[in-house]
Amino acid sequence: MQQESQALPEAVRGFITPSSKKMLIGGKWVDAASGKTFITVNPATGQPLAQVAEGDAEDIERAVAAARKAFDDSPWTQMKPAERTRLLLRIADLIDQHRDELAQLETLDNGKVILESSNFDIPAAAETFRYYAGWPTKIYGETNPSDPAFFNYTLREPVGVCGQIIPWNFPLLMASWKLAPALACGNTVVLKPAEQTPLTALRLGELLLAAGVPEGVVNIVTGYGPTAGGALVNHPDVDKVAFTGSTEVGKEILRASAGNLKKVSLELGGKSPNIVFLDADQKDAAMGAFMGIFLNQGQVCCAGTRLFVEQKMYEEFTDALATTAGSIKQGPGLDKESRIGPLVSQEQFDRVLGYIDIGKKEGVQVKTGGEANQGGALGKGYFVKPTVLTGVKNDMRIAQEEIFGPVVSAIPFKDEEDVVRQANQTVYGLAAGVWTKDVSKAHRISRALRAGTVWVNCYNQLDPISPFGGYKQSGFGRELGRHSLDLYTQVKSVWLRV
To answer: For all residues of the chain together, what is the average pLDDT?
Structure first.
């Protein structure tokens, strides 16, 4: 680990080289109660990057107690809305000020290319806090036209202690999606980052304290899902759980929530259709198909993994996509010339290659990629070549199961009716894309698709003002926009006899 740290950028070396990174509980940086630690790995090399405290049930107990005390017995919930606004703005400003450092940490821990970390992940995290900074002064109740003998009004109040579990694909951004609305509404939080990518969450914890977040309001416990995560979702003093991750784990969390009927919001998996019609702008559609699957090495819940192409142009379009995918520069994320990096872990590396093998056995054709990209300058990093599969049928496993890697399944279709039917034949419903110059067709298809977000002549557009979430087994609840306020507040009705 020492040799690895010597090669790191100076801005982050001091953060990751101490003997182990501690957890944030009650405003203090502490070791795990057990004393255990685990290693987070640099996906570009497969080598140790940092040592992190391994929290478990005892640490969750301490963190929930701190969050409960901060909610029940501290000035936090009595803070003026305008002061919460100023606090969130300070957090956003600090993220901006440390943008380069945070981007390097994100790339080292996750593997994504620095171009994406610097220009999307970190700025979008800051903008999320900045957007929610506008909400504390605008969380209104209502005055209802009741019986004239009474005055009836509602209050919108914070839920309480929120357990938040975030994934490894956009670590800092997903933390901001959950923390910003929770804090804007006056809640307290226990945050459990993914064990694969805990570093930017811990650095964010330092920035939160620097911004003036009171002790116990945000607690960060690093550890594994079955132990730390399981203890958090089962804890009887947690009032709400927010989770982003796999559908399988989401179902487990929903079952665990029954203990005290805690509120739950789930943003889960996807197998999103990206539909290209013959009348689309072919250049834009090709770029949209490319970015729809290869952004962040395909490790995106809303990735356009099922590429539906109108039959008359299927071969031509997939040939062009394969040519582009085969020419993209793959390498370590910190290399500014890299446009696609490694997968996040050995486990994900094995999973993606396993699905490619499944596809081959199902009879698909590999137009490009379809194998690991290791050895030479790439060494033992978790690199899988960008892969375009053709001859795919919509009922194949490769088209129905979430792969979460740089693998696109190209499926031909005949007409509108055919593509809508195929696009909706999935247990998921997170997102979809439509490429056409026909505005009426765009509206028809958008209405017909069972998905929480539909992009027309674009893909992967996100903004804090717009809600994001899924249909069917892609989860429920909406993050971002005003809709996330519903996740972090509850409504009280007050009756007053006049």
So the answer is: 96
